[in-house]
Structure formats: structure tokens, C-alpha cells
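Anyone opening a protein record will find just a pair of labelled lines. With that in mind, the following record should read easily:
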Amino acid sequence: MDKQTFTIGLLSLTAVLLFIAMLIMPPRASANFAVKDRNYQAVTATLTANDEALYILDNRSGLMACFSYNPNQKALQLRDLKPITNAFAAAANAAK
């Protein structure tokens, strides 16, 4: 086996491995997912073009938290925590 045949074989094997890795790669998170349980609800949403958020609603306490991923710290970061009723306050005031 000469050097050229070995190099072509190695590059072909690498290409096949990269192709298989691309096929089995997990899907990217998308902002169209919701989970509802008895006490909590989790909803994902798009904030900006490359930024997504996770909203956690606590049905018992009536609070809603918004989390987003901070790539600099490599962790979820709390963006805001407010009562759920604040989301409907503007609509209630406009109806009056």
C-alpha cells in the first residue's frame, strides 16, 4: 500500500464518519415547544433571531420566570421574574 492510497482511504473514511455524525446530530432547540403539568408550565419562545427563551410558569404561586442562555457564562440566566397577572394588566386597562 503506497502513501497516496492510504491518504485517499483515510480521507474517505473521515468523510463517511462526518456524514454519519451529521445525520445523528440531535435537533437544535426550537421555539415551538410547551410542557404542561399540574403545577408548572414550560414554554420556549424566540426572543431575537439567534436568541431563544424558556418561560416557566408556576401555577401555585402565580409567578412567571424568563430564562435565556448566556454563552459567555455557559449557563441559563434569569432575565425576569414577575406575576402572571402583569401580562394581562395592559389588556384589562385598555378594555376599561
